[in-house]
Each structure stands twice: as C-alpha cells, then as structure tokens.
Amino acid sequence: xxxxxxxxxxxxxxxxxxxxxxxxxxxxxxxxxxxxxxxxxxxxxxxxxxxxxxxxxxxxxxxxxxxxxxxxxxxxxxxxxxxxxxxxxxxxxxxxxxxxxxxxxxxxxxxxxxxxxxxxxxxxxxxxxxxxxxxxxxxxxxxxxxxxxxxxxxxxxxxxxxxxxxxxxxxxxxxxxxxxxxxxxxxxxxxxxxxxxxxxxxxxxxxxxxxxxxxxxxxxxxxxxx
Length: 226
What we know:
Layout: E1 2-3, E2 9-10, E3 17-24, E4 34-43, E5 46-54, H1 63-69, H2 73-76, H3 82-93, E6 97-100, H4 107-119, E7 122-123, E8 127-129, H5 130-137, H6 146-152, H7 163-182, E9 201-206, E10 209-214, E11 223-225
Parallel strand pairs: 2-8, 3-6, 6-8
Antiparallel strand pairs: 1-7, 3-4, 4-5, 9-10, 10-11
Helix pairs in contact: 5-7, 6-7
C-alpha cells in the first residue's frame, strides 16, 4: 500500500496476509540490489495465490551471493529490473499485512529504499516479523533461523535461500506460531496477548518494578501487573 507513512510492526497472528522474501546481492541497503522477490497471499489462513520473479540487478552478482542462493548472472539476464518487479509486487500485496522472517531489519529496508528511490513513496502496510515472534513464542530454542524453525515444526525444508521456497516455509511457520499464541506452552512466558489490541505482551522493567506491557506501544499502552 502506497503512502507517505510507514506501516506498524505487529506482534500477533493475522488470518489474511502476504508472506514475502527477497534474495539480494548482499546485505547492505546502501550498495546491494534485489535479485529475486517472491510472495504468497493467504486468506483465512489458507494459501490463495503466489507471486515470484527473478530480478536483473543491472550489475554482476557477486560470487558469494550466488553461493548462498544459487542465482547467477545468466539466470537473471532476461528478467525485469527491480522497478518493474517491485511495481508488480506492490500490485500483488495491495493493503495486506506483510509477513516475513527478519523483514524488520532486512527485507523491508530494501523495499522502502527502492520505493522511495523509484517513486518517492512510502510503504504503509503493517507487518509481522516472524523472527521476534518466534523468540517470544519459543524461548527454549537455541536458534531461530527459518530452516531451524521449519525443522522444529516438522516442515519440509526445500529450496532454502530461494525466495519462493522460503516464503512457503515461513507461511507454514507463521501458522504454527499463530497456534502457539492461542495456546502458549508454560515456558513461553511472554507469549500471551494484549486484551485490548491482540498483540503480544512483554515483561518490562519500570520505576516501580516489573510489569507486562503491550508490544504495540506506543499505539497501545495497555499494561498489567506481574
């Protein structure tokens, strides 16, 4: 969704969303480019549609990136540039909530950077990052990579580090996390939801000791005594 504002980070399960993932030439939003973008549209918890395209970054793909995702210069030679691919992606997502793994610190930064560079617009979709959500719901795990979360839930790991494959894994992971939020394990002490807005509650320290605060702060200021 195009806007001058930026969407809010949500820490809760939603039934209607678009899970997305990028592959890039590297990790820097200052110097690297997108080489693949994929998305899966979900309605009432069920997959409704898919979108995926390789992207020509108009520059050579570093060997180190190709080692990770298997995408080479010859594969993207006849693919659209990211301006065309991003436009198609935004048409696909509309105003849906975006879901992805580590998107708060990585994928969304590329999306927002290039939407601003191409059209001087912001991306106002609210979003859910499954990385912090998994940490809250599954505090006993030692690793929160997408493949480890998939293995934890018995999800088949296939086409890892390709955008559509990661989307398919993460869509299933998000559905499992939704069940964790509804029925948290005893050790998941942070995985209960705000009665006001439905986002996760988090244990915090204040001037008068510890308390439960909504992760939707500052939009939601609900608190609860420990």
